[in-house]
Amino acid sequence: MTYMVAMLLTLFLAVCIGFARLSQAQSLAECQALTDHYLEKHHKEASPYTGSNLLYFLHVPRTAGRTFQSCLLKMGVPPALRCPKAYDHLRITNMSKPNCYLLSSHDDFSVVSMLPPDVAVLTQLRDPVDRFLSAYEFAVEVASRSLKRPRNYRRRVGRIATEDVWPWSYLVPFFAQDLQAKVPAAQAKVLPPGGVWSEMENKTGAYFFNRVTNQTKESLTEAEAAQGILPMLDSYDNELVMSLKDFAKHPIASELLHNGATFQVLGITNYSHWGDAGGFRACLLRYDHLRSQMLEVAKNRVQRFTHVGTTDRLHESAAAALVSMGLSVNSAAYSGGDEEVAGRRGVGVQHRQSGNGNAGPGGGDRAAVDDLSNRGLNSEAAAKLQLLAKLIREARRRLQNSQKELVDAQKSDSDPSIVKMLQDKVDSARNELIDAQERLASVRETLPANLGGAERADIGVSDLSVGHAARRRLLHEDAGASQQQQQQQQGSGTATGTADGATGAAGTTEGTAEGLGTADEMAEQRRRLASKVTLQTVDAFGYQLDLEYRKIPNTNVGMEFVRCANRAQERSTSRRDQSLAVLRTADGRHVTFSKATRRRIPQEVLDLIRSYNTMDTALHKVGLSLLDQRIAEQKAENLYQEVPKEEADPSLVARRMQRMQAARAGGKASGDELR
Ligand SMILES: *[C@@H]1O[C@H](CO)[C@@H](O)[C@H](O)[C@H]1NC(C)=O
Ligand SMILES: *[C@@H]1O[C@H](CO)[C@@H](O)[C@H](O)[C@H]1NC(C)=O
Ligand SMILES: *[C@@H]1O[C@H](CO)[C@@H](O)[C@H](O)[C@H]1NC(C)=O
Ligand SMILES: *[C@@H]1O[C@H](CO)[C@@H](O)[C@H](O)[C@H]1NC(C)=O
Predict the structure, then answer these.
(1) How far is the CA of 658 from the centre of ligand 2 (A)?
(2) Which domain does 451 fall in, by range?
(3) Residues 356-369: pLDDT tens digits?
């Protein structure tokens, strides 16, 4: 009895706490104030690309952004111009004028205020239902690896793990926990002595399998069928893992995925540098009119991007992006690992000198690697890296919280001494974050180049020694500068911009950046710029860049893009199938993800996902029409050329043909591997 009362009390308390959290910053007045604050503060917009300013790739997770980044942007840009990878944290060494021209990360638009004033932005958008399915599948896949590592698995130290990269840093542990609770129970079920027949499916088609007798059959006799056949496992709704439908309804999906592209363009994701982003997202969920208002801000914002492509039209997007970057499919292609990047003072780039004298990426002394990768050392280093990445996340959260406190105090006209105190708190939180980042960078520095990071992650990361004091100073200068700018802006008020006519979403948006021209003016400006982009030949210090370094002979970026994208797709398909093989019930049926499995998802579930993603659905439409518009402009200028239809490598072509034939024979297509 007392137990019951205690239970009820606990429940009641939990509900109260939940409410308190939900109702935070949700009154209309407060939401209006947050909106005003947002519009005031987040006025910086993307600049046109000229060839000598920084190009930032705003990488929305699950938009094939990894392919876009490593097969297109990276291959088209000489190593000497690339910034160090920044997926775990920003690694720009000189914020005021970074000595590199291409930066990519999963940060949201709030990071743009930390980048140089004339930063240009690229992005890829995707239909939100596809993006959500892809995110679910990827999180389940990566989490399933934690369940049972393959026999030959070795942790690679010095690369960042998928689990270190937002939003996987939350989603992978979430699913890993779910799997750990469910999979062992599902596998412990006892089967009848003769076993049961289950319907299975592979790329060739459907068949029957009996796990106990270990038999496979194309068809069953009437007697066999009479014993009952287990239907094909529903990969999105089964006893092994949280169903797609439940995940779509779960708060973590709203926090990290639903409308995620729009939130990223607005700079208000869960990973935002703005401390009030969480409260502001809650406001948007609650008030329709604020949601429409901010959607218009996002639509206007992407029009200023140097490139907006879509995942469903990846090849056209790649071709259009090249033109926007002042390149063409016939431009040179470059190889070169992530350690060969700009920022090393001097001519061109140098080979990385690692501790034990290994050569660059991919090369290296096998024996030395084996010697060093004995389990103890590796897992110890991996654990250390993971801990440091966690400290960064925590420091980031503290910075966000203190920024929020400061903003609250400023909004409520608090005593100047309190504001000053909170400003100091923000500064020291920022220093803590930088310290944590430096510590991670320096631990990586001590590791041999070829002993990469924890898991061979979705996103590999290299390291670069950074000027600690310099970066710290510049971060502060930057913060100061943006405050000044903000104060100036407050006096001048904000202009009214015209919304995107091309999508029929006419109307005006208040409070977007000043000087935002009409769609026609912007198109005209892009036309002028597209034929005028001239790429850098000297670095920020005036040194000649070595543009021949790592150039791949007898090929071009269009050909290399197609080849690299196909290879990436094949690799991730086979890796996914391997990983998912452990998600198996006692009767032997297992989770698989492919176009065929996606086609069987009930419409009701797809509609549910769609209903959570109205902003992203609208933004994706804008992306499609922007892509059409820009391709038309580029064609009018005779600048647009398609990427090659097929890759040049005959063995790969042959293998793909085989697979396509097999797929046709079984009426099945291979899985959607666009990341
Ligand atoms: C950053 O870049 C600017 C402009 O090139 C330069 O004046 C400054 O010295 C650089 N700072 C550092 C720390 O390298
Ligand atoms: C699919 O399964 C059937 C029956 O086990 C088998 O004959 C066929 O080779 C398999 N196909 C593939 C592509 O694995
Ligand atoms: C089941 O049969 C396959 C061949 O059809 C064989 O490769 C496999 O080792 C068998 N597994 C067990 C557990 O007997
Ligand atoms: C981001 O989302 C995760 C998972 O829901 C949550 O634990 C975390 O507190 C969120 N962080 C911020 C800054 O909102």
Answers:
(1) 14
(2) 385-476
(3) 322 222 222 222 22
